[in-house]
Design brief:
It contains seven helices and seven strands. It is an alpha/beta fold. The protein has a single domain, classed as Rossmann fold, CATH 3.40.50. A five-stranded parallel β-sheet has the order 4-3-2-5-6, sandwiched between helices. A two-stranded parallel ribbon has the order 1-7. Helix 1 packs across helix 3 (50-62). It is globular, with a radius of gyration of 15 Å.
Length: 152
């Protein structure tokens, strides 16, 4: 189990981690704060797919909160050391393999495939079902809760 993320590592981040951070989740915000601080300061690089942006923008769009839509889009797309990937041919091919092999949902397969293609060492999520994927180390926020985790 990962207890620290060494400097300059590439990490894949699932949508829910962003949502927990943006909504200041009472259980996970202390972890996401340290994680995104490390990314912002360049201690590690993060990668996610554009599915993250899609999923984050749904609620504010549904609520008619165009300011939140604009703020979230601007924050995410300009966040230092965070890279968004499109589901190109390589990612789509790997995602279909992951779906076939592990019976995971398409958005999850695209997220994980994006991380793998970009060279990530770990994929951070809170979806326990994704632990069955062995192609990359899956780290759950629940596993971090209460641990002394440092992001060097």
């Amino acid at each position: 189990m990962v207890k620290e993320i060494p400097k300059r590592h590439i990490i894949g981040i699932d949508t829910m981690v962003f949502i927990y951070h943006l909504e200041d989740h009472p259980k996970f915000s202390s972890i996401t704060e340290r994680l995104f601080d490390a990314v912002e300061k360049g201690r590690c690089t993060a990668v996610t797919s554009y599915i993250t942006l899609l999923e984050i923008l749904v609620k504010p769009k549904r609520d008619g909160n165009l300011k939140a839509v604009s703020d979230y889009r601007d924050l995410l797309l300009t966040f230092p050391n965070l890279k968004f990937l499109s589901a190109d041919l390589l990612i789509s091919d790997l995602a279909s393999t992951l779906r076939a092999k592990h019976s995971i949902k398409t958005p999850d397969a695209i997220q994980i495939a994006s991380a793998i293609i970009e060279g990530a060492n770990i994929f951070i999520t809170n979806d326990e079902q994704l632990k069955k994927v062995k192609d990359i180390e899956i780290v759950l926020l629940n596993e971090w809760k209460g641990l002394d985790i440092s992001i060097k």
